[in-house]
Amino acid sequence: MRVLPFLPLPVRRPSLCCARLSSALFKATALELVVLAGHVLLYRTGIAGERRPPSRPAGPPAATAPAGTTALPAEGGEQPPVVLLHGFIDNRSVFVLLRRSLARHGRRHLESLNYSPLTCDIRTAAELLGRHVEEICARTGQHEVDIVGHSLGGLIARYYVQRLGGDQRVRTLVTLGTPHGGTAVAPLASAHPIVRQMRTGSAPIEELRRPAPGCRTRFVSFWSELDRLIVPAEAACIDHPDLDVLNVRVSGIGHLALPVHPTVAGAVRQALESREALAEATGAAGVTTAAGGTGAAGATGTVSVA
Asked: In what side-by-side order are the strands of the sheet with 82-85?
């Protein structure tokens, strides 16, 4: 007896949605395995820290900003350096494709920070990042940097910006699949202290919920509904009333593909160049250009790679 074709559409819709979701999840999982295999091959190339370029000759006094102000590059001037920060038990090799994409589009100063897999505390890693940023600014003559962090790397960078005064140095922080609200998957590897700190309700996660009035940094958080390492997936969004935030949903890929997918790389470039351009490209709503880092919290956009 053929009953299904005569059922009302609302009754059939859940099964159709489930079928589409299953298909998307299958494709995303297959891509994750391909990315993982490629990254395993490249991993050894990123174990050693990268060589530091020579320091730039001292510039005129105007190159440094007075205390309490933010130095902006002159019109047509050089863009700030970009610091790439990897995730847990990873290294700088995860950014090989994103780095190449940024370099092709004019970013001259690109640097990666390898932190030890034995690092046991987000705060300690954030302090190391702060020293690294200061060294980059001193060497390049720039007052600010941009940071792109994948997974745990984004959480370390946010802690530096929000809790250690890093907003004085970081113009834009882009995070890719970062557990800003904590993740329920972390118990799978909870023997490691820093993994426990990525769990919902941990001390560092709760510290990031505290007020951050006057924070100057722009935040752009990319998250995917198919990210199986961030549970729930929406925990990769930043939800804070004091921060200038644009949350961008990426559809069609998982956690490992976020730092390597060319569509995401293009969106990251836009995020670093112009918040307004990225908001327009992703259809984000509620974006303002108010100074002081307020008024844009909760804005959302979408990037589809399907």
From this structure: 110-113, 82-85, 145-150, 170-176, 218-224, 244-251, 299-304
Query: Is the distance from CB of 249 to CB of 300 less than 8 angstroms?
Result: yes
Tokens matching residue 298? 């909760």
pLDDT, tens digit, for every residue of 74-112?
Answer: 334 679 999 999 999 888 889 999 999 999 998 989 999
Token pair 């970013």: residue? 107
How far is residue 224 from each of residues 54, 79, 152, 185, 186, measured CA to CA in Å? Answer: 39, 28, 15, 15, 17
pLDDT tens column, 31-89: 889 888 887 887 787 777 666 666 555 444 334 444 444 444 433 467 999 999 999 98
pTM over 0.70: yes
Residue burial 106-123, b: 16+ Cβ < 10 Å; e: rest: ebebbbbbbbeeebeebb
CA distances for 122 relative to 38, 203, 223, 258, angstroms: 28, 10, 21, 22
